[in-house]
Structures are given as structure tokens and as C-alpha cells.
Predict the structure of UDP-N-acetylmuramoylalanine--D-glutamate ligase.
Amino acid sequence: MKHPDLYRGEEVVVLGLAKSGVQVAKVLHERGALVTVNDKKERDQSPEASELESLGISVICGGHPDGLIHEGVRLVVKNPGIPYSVPPVQKALQLGVEVVTEVEVAYRLCVAPMIGITGSNGKTTTTTWVGHMLEAAGMNPIVAGNIGTPLSQAALEATEDNWMVVELSSFQLKGTETFRPKVGCLLNVAETHLDYHGDMKDYVASKAKLFANQLESDTAVLNWDDPVCRELVPYVQASILPFSTSEELAQGIFVSPSFVPDREDELKRVILYRDAMGQETEIAAVDSIGLPGRFNVENALAACAIAIAAGADPAGLGGVLASFRGVEHRLEYVADKGGAVYYNNSKATNSKATTMALASFRQPVVLIAGGLDRGSDYMELLPVLGSGVKALVALGQTKDKLVQVAGLAGLKHIISVDNGESAAAVLQQAVREASAIAEAGDVVLLSPACASWDMFTSYEERGRIFKAAVHNL
């Protein structure tokens, strides 16, 4: 541990009984902190409370009592999704109490070097890919963070011989102070989560905290094709390792020849790594990558850059690029029904993710989309709906907006699904409607361009119901 006794005898408040909150409460309690966990949910909706209380941890459910935050509190660890506007967080900030997310606590306790990966799209795929690459290189990775295992739990298992490979959201990064990854990667930036951040300035600033404490001896991996990533360059102190699909780089990871409009099929492309001395290593042929879509080429380049920055041999990465078959709910092949191929891309929770998914297919696409309304007008989808999309089946809070954009795009087949039944029944009907339109050679794609919380508990639930509906056709 870097600081095993950091909070011994100190009062700590953990806000939120989610998985990461439960784990960080246990970790701090084991290290002698006086922990109180608070959740606005009622006690009967908080099954984790009994487990924590059995360990001697105080749990308060059903609201935020006035005396929860006071001058004697040393630290507040909040669930990443809790907004900074809630009263206990505001009270802590007024009193000068440090407010962080679990990522910050885990970093302070972990002895293993960390790789931090963030971006609007592609985080989980890239993080998982890096884990496979480092495993193949014998570098003992532990994959954790927003991807599944709470970072505070994984941090306790790590030794100096491990590499922590951590997926990070903007919510998590916003609540960091000293967090310093040895390798940090920003994949891309799209307009999303504005209901939480308020504006793009705060969203980008939260992402950029990944690099805030890095030194020149660390590495910042940046997408050279993303203008927001490039705008951050003057503020990054670490050594920059860029990646690009559209530009040959003096140093970095790139595709040769570069991708240019209307020339994506006929050329034989390879992924190259060029080091600071100008020496080149051919990593793999682009068409050998095990995942479809140009955006997965970007993810592959990012994963290679991260692995190389951590010390992996670039010549040994090609096999993992070819063998990796992706992550559930991310352009996941489901089935072939009547000659039409069905894909589950439920993780596409913004327009850019759906645009990238649609660009992966040359076949006509029957698109199922819609979900939580976060204020977007979805005009970003207009160009892609007008080229290659055969039909739209819209559902959820945003269905009317999507129908309007599809009409502007000139789609002939536009269906809005809302049968007044359960969320599962609505999605099942959407699958049946899409199936009735799809012909042999078409793709039926669930790529909602929206979060799932208007109808489902998570994008995972949405994706699994979709897959079950496809298999039941």
C-alpha cells in the first residue's frame, strides 16, 4: 500500500450504496477509518446495508440527515453518478471537506502502476483489449474500474508486479485530485452526459483530469483524429503517444495507407508503430482485426499504443488483435435469421456511437433506436440515416425526435413502437417490426443512440432482452 494508514481514526462518509460504494466502505473500515455510509434509498431497498453493519460500519438510509456532514469529517467518497448539487456534497464543499470518487481512494492505496482509459465511446472494448495484450505479454494485468470490478477492491489485490488497467468515466474522473496513471488514454470526445456536466466545457475538463498529474516520465495516448484530443496537447505534461487512422505520424501508431473517403476496401492496409528514432514495426494487417468497423480500428490502435507505452513488444500484438472477439453489447453478433444478420450494440448511448456502428456495415441496415431523452435533437444522425439505413424502428422517450430526423433523411420505412405494455414487450415488438422489414442480406442493428434508463435498468438489460427477442423470432 502507498498509504495503508491514511484514514485511520478519521471520519469518512461514503455516499451511495452501489457496488463501488460498498467496496470502498469496506476498504476504509479495514484500514481503521470511522465510516458512515449514506443512501437516499429506503432501508428495504438497500440489501447491502446489513452486510456493512455486521462489519461495524454505520449505515443511514432514507435520506441525507442534516448532521451527516460536519467539520469533523475528513473525507467524502461519493458514488460517481451522484451530482455535486446534492445537499451533503454542497455542505462538504462549503466546509472544505475533500470530496472524491472511489478511484481517488483506490489510487492512494494501490502500489501497482495504473493505466487509465477514458473516452465517450470504445472504453470497455479498448480496456478489455489492453488486458488481453498485457496478459499475452506476461505483464500480469488486472482489469478493473468502470468495467466491472470496483477499483478499490482490485487495488488491494495488486502488487508491484501487476498493471492496473482501468476504465474510467467522466463521472469518476471529475472526483479525482492526485490520481496519476502511468499511462493515460483519451479515445475520443462526443457530446454526451450533459445532463450531469451541464456543458461540454465541464465534460471535457473532467476527461482531461486523466492527464492533470502526469509527469514527463508518464505517457498520454491521444486520438490524433479527434480535434478535442488535439486541443488538449498544450496542457499535457506527459510524453504524448498519438494514434491515427487518417494521418501518417512522425511517431506513434497509424494505419498505412491512411483511411480516406471512398477508398476503404480496395487497399491493403497495415498498422504500423513508429518510435521516437523513426524505427517502424508492422503490427498487423487491418483486415486481420477480429472486430468489424473502422471505429474498432481506432480502438485497436489505441490498445496497441497503450500496451507499447506499458512496455509490451509491438511485434507481439498482432495475434491479440486477430483473436479478440469483443465485448457483450458492443456490436455483438447475435444471430442470422432468414438471411438477415442481427447485431446488439446496446452500449451505443449517444449519436456518435450509433453513427460509428452504422459506418461498419455495407449492407442495408434496419435500425432499432431510441431511449432516454437527454435533450439532443439527433440531427447528427441525419447523414447516416440518409445513406445505408433502410428503415428505422423507434422506441423510448426519444422516438418522436428520431422519427422526425428519419423523415428529413427520406427514409421510406419509419415505425414508432409504443404499445403501452412493459419495456420488454416494447423492445420485443420492435424486433418483430424490424424482422418484418428485413430481407436476406440486410443487417438488423440495435444501436439506440440513447441511454436506457427511461425503460430499462441498464444498457445490459436492454441488450439481453433484444438478444432473447431475436432468438425467439
